[in-house]
Amino acid sequence: MSLRRALPVTVAALAFLAGPASAGGHRPPPPPATPATYDVSYPQCGRALPGSATGGIVGVNNGIVFSANPCLATEWAWARNATTYAPAFYANTANPGPAYSSHWPAGQVSPQVCDGTNSAACSYDYGWNAAKNSFADAAAATTTAAATQWWLDVETGNSWETLESAYGQTAAAQANDRASLAGAVAALHDSGVATVGVYSTSYQWGQITGGSGTTFAAQPAWIAGVGSLSTAQANCRTTSFTGGRVTLAQYASNGYDADYHC
Known about the structure:
The chain is built from 7 helices and 8 strands; from the N terminus they run ααββαβαβαβαβαββ. Strand 2, helix 3 (72-79) and strand 3 form a beta-alpha-beta unit. By secondary structure, the protein is of the alpha/beta class. Helix content is 30%, strand content 17%.
C-alpha cells in the first residue's frame, strides 16, 4: 500500500514545516482540513482525525492481507459521523503464490478446488480467503459490514506473483493475480456486500494484472494519487483502469488522504 504509506503526515511534522517556532517556543498548529471525504487506516492510529468530513473510508487491514487494523473500531466510529456520504471500507489484496505465503491454500475444495500448487484456482481461493478474513474483522467492528460499500486496495506495495522473482511478468502470473482479485470480489459479494470497487492506478493495475479487459468493468474505480484537488477532478474524467466508472479520485489535503467524489 505504497501510496498510503507515503501520504500520512503527523501533526508535529506539519507544524515543523509551517515555519520557525514562535518566541514562546511553540509552533503554530496546522490549518484545519477542508471538509472532504478522507480515507484512514493503521498509519493514523493514535493521531487526530479530520474534525469535519463529508465521508470516511476506513482501511480494515494493518497494511497487508490477513492482518487487522488495530484502530479499526475507533476509526469506523469516526467515519460514521461523516455528514454527507455513507462510510465505507477498503481492504488490502495480494497474491504472493505458494513460494512466499504461509496462508497459501491447500486441499481447499470451495469455492474452487485447490491442490496447493501455483494455479489460477488456488490464487482464486487465496483472494477469497483474504477477503473473507477482512470481512470478519470488519464485522467484529460493526454489524453493518455487509451493508457497506467496499474497496479493494490493489497496489504494487503488496506481494503479487507478477512482482515476485519466483514468478515474474508472465502471462500465467498475470492470470493468477487476476484470479486472486476475482476471488476477493466474489467473497465480498458472497458475504452480502452489494458494491465492491477497486483502488489503484493504471500503472499499478497494469503491473499486477497485465490489463484485465472487461473482467472487472462492473467494479467502480477509485484512482489513487497524491496530487491536488484539481488533479483529482481531472482524474475523474479519465478512462478507468478497470474499464468501469471512476467514482472517487484521491488527493492530498493538509496531511490527510482526501477523496473527491466524481
